[in-house]
Amino acid sequence: MGEISGKKNLSYTEVFSLNGAAEANILPVTSICNISCVFCSHKQNPPGVLSYRIAACTPDEVRQVVSFLDPARPVIIGESATRIIEGEPLTNPFIREVLSAVRAALPHTAVQITTNGILLDESMTDFLCRLGRVTVNLSLNSAVEKSRYTLMGDACPGRALRNTRLLKSYGLPFNGSIVAMPHLVGWSDLEETIGYLEQCGAETIRLLLPGFTRLAAPALRFKPALREELNDFAAGLRHRAGVPLTCEPPLVYDLKPVVGGVIKGTPAAAAGIRRGDVIHSVNNVPARTRVQAFRQVFKAASPEIIVAREEGLVPLQVKKEPLERSGLVMDYDLDPVLVTDMALALRRNGAKRALALASELGSAVINSGLMQFLEGEAEIEVLTVKSRFFGGSIGAAGLLTVADFETALTEYLRDKPGRLPPVALLPEPAFDRRGRDLTGRSYVDLEQKFGIRFELL
Ligand code: SF4
C-alpha cells in the first residue's frame, strides 16, 4: 500500500520502519490531502529525492506497528516525517478506528494531531475530546477567506474558521500555526490570523517561515532578510499577545536559557515564571542551554527553579508530575549532550582534532556549544555546509545530502590543503537508520572519497 517514488511498492510496516517513524514516535496515517497549499514542501523536491506516499492506513496496520511507539512520549500524527509525504490525517476514512486502536494500546499516552481543520467538525471534535489526552496542532495559516484561497486553494474557507471556534467550547487544547507568507498576503493578514487564533483559545501560536528550494516558483521566493523581519514582527506583537508567540526556525545565536513564553493555566504559569526570565538552575543544576533547562523541568517532579530577572535571582517551584508538561515555551537551541558525544567520538577514534559538518541553521549554536562546553585538548572545527541539492533558502540539517557534504569538504581541502583531520562528524538528521541520505546515498561514500573516519551524531 505504500509506494516509493519510482520503485517497488512497500508495505505500511516497511514504510514505517524505513522512515524511522518509531524513533520519532510519528505514526503516518495517509499522504492524501484535501487542499493544495502553495508552500507544501514536497511540491518543490528536486528529482532524485526518495520519498514515500502512503494511502490511508487501516486500523489493523496501525495495530501491527503501535508496539514500536514509545508510550512515554506523545504519539505524533499528521506531522511531516522527512521521507513520508504526509497528508491531512482526518481524510483517512478509518481515522476514528485508527485513533481508537492507538488509545487501546497506549491508554495513558498523549496524542498530538496536526490538521488543517477543514474536517474538524463538531462530531470529530467531540470524538477527540472523548478519546482523551489529545492536543491539536491547527495549521490555520490564514483567517482571511481570500488569503485561504490564495495560500491553500481552500474553496470553502468558512469551514476551517467555524471549526476553529468550536475547539474552545469543547475544551480541546490546541496550538495554532501559521505558515507566514507576508510577501503573498501581507503583514496585516498575519496579524489578523494571530488575533483570530488567540480569540479562539489557542494555547500557543507558531509562525513558520517556509523554506523554498531552487525549483520554487518565483512568487514563493523571498529575500533572506524576511527571517529577521518576521522575528521583529513577532517581537512587536508579543507584549500584547495573551499567548506565547514563537517563530520557526528560531533566530537563536546564543545558548542563554531564556523563557520565550508561558502557557496559561499550566504549572509554570502557577509558579509565576514569566516570558523573558532566564533559567539559572533547575534543582541546583546550572541551566546551560534552553534545551537542557526545558528537558530538566519536563522530567522532574515539582522542580525548584531559580530564574534571573531584573531584580536578581528568584527561587520558584513548578508543581508538576515527572514527564508532565510544564507550560514553558522555549526556542530550540542545543543539547549540551551533543558536545559530550562529539568529544567521545574523538576519543573513540584516538583523535585530537575533528571537523563538525553543520547546517547553515545549526552552525552558530554548535559553535557556541563547542566554545562553552568542550573540555580538554580536543579541537573541533565547525564547517558550515550549504544545501546545494535543495538550494533556495533551505538550511536545515535534515535536508543535507552526501553530495552537499562532498562539496563542502572539497572546498575545505582547496582552502586548507593537508588540514583535513582524521575524523569528521556528520549531522544524524541527514541520514536514515541505514546511513543513507534523502537521495539514497550512504555516508560511507565520503569515507571512500576522503580516506578519513565519519561518525553520525
Ligand atoms: S494541508 Fe499540509 S499536507 Fe495538505 S497541502 Fe497543505 S501543507 Fe500539504
UniProtKB/TrEMBL annotation:
This is Radical SAM core domain-containing protein. Signal peptide: none annotated. SMART domains: PDZ (SM00228). It comes from Pelotomaculum propionicicum. Keywords: 4Fe-4S, Iron, Iron-sulfur, Metal-binding, Oxidoreductase, S-adenosyl-L-methionine. Residues 19-240 form the Radical SAM core domain. GO terms for molecular function: 4 iron, 4 sulfur cluster binding; metal ion binding; oxidoreductase activity. InterPro entries: Aldolase_TIM, MoaA_NifB_PqqE_Fe-S-bd_CS, PDZ, PDZ_6, PDZ_sf, Radical_SAM_PqqE_MftC-like, rSAM, rSAM_sf. Its cofactor is [4Fe-4S] cluster. Pfam families: PDZ_6, Radical_SAM. It comes from the Bacteria. The keyword Protease does not apply. Gene3D superfamilies: 2.30.42.10, Aldolase class I.
